[in-house]
Each structure stands twice: as C-alpha cells, then as structure tokens.
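For the sake of transparency, this paper describes our internal protein records without simplification. The remainder of this section carries one protein's record, kept here as part of the documentation:
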Amino acid sequence: MDFATVKDKLQEAGVRCDRGLTEAEVCLAEDLFSFRFPPDLKALLMFVLPTGRGWPNWRDVEDPEIARRLIWPYEGMCFDIENNVFWPDSWGAKPASLTEAFEIAKQEIEAAPKLIPVFGHRYLPDRPSLEENPVFSVYQTDIIYYGSNLWNYFENEFSDYFGTARYHISDPLRPIEFWSDYVDGGG
C-alpha cells in the first residue's frame, strides 16, 4: 500500500494526520484491547495517524470512544436480537430470556475475529493476522464489505479524492470467520 498517497488523499479530504504511532504505542493498544493490528493497518498507523471525528485515537488508549467502538458490533447485534427478530440458526434455539440471548451473542462475537475500528462504523478484522483482510461496514446486523482490503476501503470511503468509482469491491475477497457469513447471507 502506498501510505504517502493515502496520507495525501486524507489530507485533501480534510482529515488531520498526525505522526505515526511508535512501536510502544502500537503494543500498548494491542495489549490493552487484546488484539493484534493486521500488518497493513499497523504499518499505516505507524506511518500516519488519521485523527479527528470518526477516527479512533490510538495514541490515547484511555479515550472511552475506542472502547465504545470496540463493543459497537456486539451492541448492534443485541439491538437487533431485541427489536428485529435477529437470531442466526447456527446459534441454536433462541432463549426466551433476552439476558441469555445476549450472553450467547457475546460468546459468539468473542470467539470471532475482533473487529478493529478504522473510521466511523468501518472495521478491519484482526484475524487472520495478514495483509489484505476485507474492511466491513457494521451497523447493527447490516454488515457489508466496504473494501476488499485496506487500500480498496480508502478508495471507497474517499472516492472523490482517489478518483475512483463511489463503491467498488475488488475480487477475490478473503473470507473472514463469522463476519463474512453475515455479508454472504449465512449468518
């Protein structure tokens, strides 16, 4: 990925770009939140740290917004379990108790690759720990691919600045345990 181009395009879009994270800052965030940044996201964040509204401030790991964004996918599923009859067949019979249903959802999500916030409600899974994982847009159980990889995500999110089609996904897409099932209709 051409990090300098990403930084230039983000700045053109009005995104403030701070100096990249240090290895120590990366390790602190990873240890505190119990995930590992995929190599491409880690390299980008060490090159440049996009900041401002919608961007997680990985330099300030005590910012409650990061923790809120990390639980957003779980909270969205719980909302749809309670309000929109969401219950995947793969989870077995839905319990009568919402508390029990939420606990099952929590267990399922905790076993899945953790979604790392990139911007807004766009997330990159931490597993597999490889470059080229797809980026997901997660709003409750409305989950779609928003980029076949991190570069394609930036092309989609900031298409006016990259000079690309508003929304295009490049094949092939790496399937991601649990999350791809919802995109592909099997969740």
Summary: The longest helix spans residues 64-83. The chain has a mean pLDDT of 95.
